[in-house]
Design a protein that fits this description.
globular; 11 strands; mainly beta
Length: 118
């Protein structure tokens, strides 16, 4: 599975961005998708995920109520809608894929930079 993330940029605090991640190479509907981020000097952390069935989503406590993960099977795309952005959301954001209920994410895309100014 090849993953291509886009949609990052510079935004003021309180603003919104929508990240997109297009998958290719395999049957998209068989893959659970996750969004991760890594800020300078910090470890990578999971932000949000959606299961391969699409029935279950997960959000880190720090983004609950502000971020929404969704997918469009027809477009082989997973989205991360980010609202009410805060400076602490500044990071490189990555999308990842795992086959069905695999224990770990096997495929990773290149990151997209999100910078939130105060």
């Amino acid at each position: 599975v090849q993953l291509q993330a886009s949609g990052g940029g510079l935004v003021q605090a309180g603003g919104s961005l929508r990240l997109s991640c297009v998958a290719s190479g395999r049957t998209f509907s068989n893959y659970g998708m996750g969004w991760f981020r890594q800020a300078p000097g910090k470890e990578r952390e999971v932000v949000a995920s959606i299961t391969w069935t699409g029935f279950t989503t997960y959000y880190a406590d720090s983004v609950k109520g502000r971020f929404t993960v969704s997918r469009d099977i027809a477009k082989n795309t997973v989205y991360l809608q980010m609202n009410s952005l805060k400076p602490e959301d500044t990071a490189v954001y990555y999308c990842a894929a795992r086959y069905r209920d695999a224990a770990s994410y096997e495929y990773w895309g290149r990151g997209t930079q999100v910078t939130v100014s105060s």
